[in-house]
Amino acid sequence: MKHGILVTVMVGLVSGLAQAGGAQGERSEGMLDVNGARIHYVSQGSGTPILLIHGYPLSGELFARNRDALAAAGYRVITIDLRGFGQSSAPAGDPGSLSTYAKDALAVLDQLNVPRAIIGGMSMGGPITFELWRTAPERFLGMILINTLANPAGIVEQNIWKGMAQKASTFGPQSLAPELLKDMLTGETRVRRPADAAFLTGIVSQASVAGDVAGANVLATRPDSIPTLKTITVPTLILEGLEDTVYPPEFSQKMQQNIAGSKLVIVPGTAHAAIFEKADAMNAAIIAWAKTIR
């Protein structure tokens, strides 16, 4: 692999920091009135802000295993539940769109008095991050792209997301968990760590039907962000799971080749929810990279 880095990260130091009493710093959590929606957020730690945007149909709790370690390393970690997901709600007239998700994220940063941040997105959070870059590049200190891609959805993928929306509408948000968990976690994790699958199932079940439908439409109709890649001028970290079958490593390699100076880290033994499944390795990669940002 010419540009990428295949790693098995040693994480004892990071884990020890995360477990140290009081090392995680300040934590605040609440609801913010944002663009007609009620957005749930968590802010933990102090220092350079890192905003993390979850994928479909999850919530900010996807990053529950990342907050402590990153806060202990000197960062302020901010996670949000996109409108219609997790604890956030949305007006019936605007359950969610790529533009709205991006505007919501900027409004949260404004209300938390964060002028600039490292901004990262997992899966659907990637297209949202690209939209944020196109809208407000001055708000970025750096960018993290997690198990995502810049390509638009092809015909097959478009119909997969349409099917997800129809299933959520017919059988409820919880019905999406069996469809998604087989790709979010490796078979080994699902068998040996059933609590991980149960945790993600609970997050999926929290979403609203309107949120599921809106998010599926965003994924099906997302724009081609490949031209955007060459405009990115901030330090960029691309994180990928070697066994990701939703957006495989080839997509991450393509992004790395098109973003000048970007770094690619591929973690073995993990699938689409790599940031949760192998959180220690992902945390170590983020911390090592973020230290280079001035």
Automatic annotation (TrEMBL):
Signal peptide: 1-20
Molecular function per GO: catalytic activity
Keyword Signal: yes
Alphabetized UniProt keyword annotations: Signal
Gene3D superfamilies linked: alpha/beta hydrolase
InterPro entries: AB_hydrolase, AB_hydrolase_1, AB_hydrolase_fold, Epox_hydrolase-like
Record has Ribonucleoprotein as a keyword: no
Domain AB hydrolase-1: 49-279
Name used for this protein in its record: AB hydrolase-1 domain-containing protein
Lineage: Bacteria, Thermotogati, Deinococcota, Deinococci, Deinococcales
